[in-house]
Amino acid sequence: QVQLVESGGGLVQAGGSLTLSCAASGTIVSISAMGWYRQAPGKQRELVAGVTSGGVTNYADFVKGRFTISRDNAKNTVTLQMNSLKPEDAAVYYCNAAIQTSVWSETYFRYWGQGTQVTVSS
Q1: Exposed, middle or buried, 12 (CB in 10 Å: 0-12/13-18/19+)?
Q2: Which among 19, 20, 25 is positioned nearest to 4, based on CA atoms?
Q3: Closest CA to 111 of 55, 9, 30, 7
């Protein structure tokens, strides 16, 4: 069974930095893309950033210039470097990945991590 495990969340003051990491493990044939979503209390889950296996990145407008996503394909990991954090960035951050789990099918399934809490104090 595929598992996504996040780490790196915590409490920081506004203007501070955090680095989130996510590692995928289990029956993995291929990972086409990995990314980060977040969900604040009373809000819907939203895309923060994503990266394909080829290194193509996509950022939400509210994090451009502040966050950087990177991926290590060999280790099946993705990281999110978050700088200049704002109170509005406080949320549970979820790792997401599109993963092929069987050699019998080229279908990629979406998997989610358990989430890691990011709290930003003002």
Answers
A1: middle
A2: 25
A3: 30
Tokens of residue 60, six digits: 């939400």
CA atoms within 13 A on the CB side of 114: 6
Strand partners, 3: 25
User: Which residues contact residue 88 at a Cβ distance below 8 angstroms, ignoring those fewer than 6 apart?
Assistant: 62, 120
Q: pLDDT by residue (tens digit) across 35-73? A: 999 999 999 999 999 999 999 999 999 998 999 999 998
Strand order of the sheet with strand 77-82? 3-7, 18-25, 77-82, 67-72
Residue whose entry in the numeric block shows the structure tokens 């595929």: 2
What is the distance in angstroms between the CA of the first residue and the CA of the last residue of the chain? Answer: 40
Residue 114's identity, in one-letter code, is Q
